[in-house]
# Entry
Amino acid sequence: MSTEPEPGLAPEHTRPRHAKNDPIMMTVDGQDFRIRERAEKTGEYDFDWLSGPHDYGFGITRADGSAMTLPEMEEAVRNFLAEIDPATGYLKE
# Structure
């Protein structure tokens, strides 16, 4: 039995383990997010910023329809937070 990962699949420990409609709760750099995959299509996600100063978040649609890994989700959250204006709590203009 080979221990090599299958081409095209993320290693088991990096893939989210959840039912498609169950949210993933993630804390990144002290900020809490709820991540939900849209029921209609694999590869579409809504990220809700739970600990932010406003009801705010973002969405991602992957062109190839593939599922995101947990590290990819964390990177997406970090990229979002890097674009937030600390004075307003909204995206920088």
